[in-house]
Amino acid sequence: MERTLILFKPDCVQRRLVGRVLARFEDKGLNVVAMKMMQITPELAKKHYAEHVEKAWYPTLEGFITGAPVVAAIIEGLEAIRVIRDMLGATSGLKAAAGTIRGDFSSSRQMNLVHASDGPEAAAREMKLYFRDEEICASEPTLRPWLRASDEN
Ligand code: CDP
Ligand code: MG
Asked: HSE on the CB side for 91, CA within 13 Å?
């Protein structure tokens, strides 16, 4: 079982798409174990996007991600990190395949609606940036027996 950090970015919140995007994760059988609305500070943005801080486009990314509230969430599921990255599609909405979240809803390289951790180390680091341990509400979905076979884990 894996957990990954998701951000419904400011464009997703402003465009009233949080519900529709969240529904895709729920429909897939993934389990939300933490969620909150918050405004990202420039300090947190620099930590979150540490690998990009030196890029020429970082200042506009920081302006975007701190410019309005986001919804942060931790989502759990089998192979959740890769499964969700696949559901998002390529970084640019102009390149992301039709049928993916970015491919269906975004026409931008920057305003691509959702962030998801890109690997186990990033997931561990990013979950700590946004949530304290006691904010995570682990529970076994009652639907579990109808989501996958009992020997799939
Ligand atoms: O989010 P993802 O891991 O797919 O992409 P990234 O290459 O790690 O870039 C992080 C975020 O920076 C992207 O999701 C875009 O919002 C933004 N970005 C940008 O503003 N301009 C670029 N040329 C590339 C990425
Ligand atoms: Mg990335």
From this structure: 4
Tell me what pLDDT residue 16 has.
98
For residue 153, the model assigns a pLDDT of 81
What kind and span of H or E run contains 25?
helix 18-28
Q: Please report which ligand is nearest the Cα atom of 45.
A: 1
The domain limits of the chain are: 2-136
- The CATH superfamily assigned to 2-136 is Nucleoside diphosphate kinase-like domain (3.30.70.141)
**pLDDT tens digits for range 17-52:** 999 999 999 999 999 999 999 999 999 999 999 999
Q: Which of 12, 86, 110, 125 to mutate to test the pocket of ligand 1 (most atoms within 8 A of CB)?
A: 110
Q: Which residue's CA is the nearest one to ligand 1's atom 2?
A: 91
CA 57 / ligand 1 centre spacing (Å): 9
The whole-model pTM stands at: 0.97
- Cβ contact 110:64 at 8 Å: yes
Let me know if 48 is a catalytic residue: no
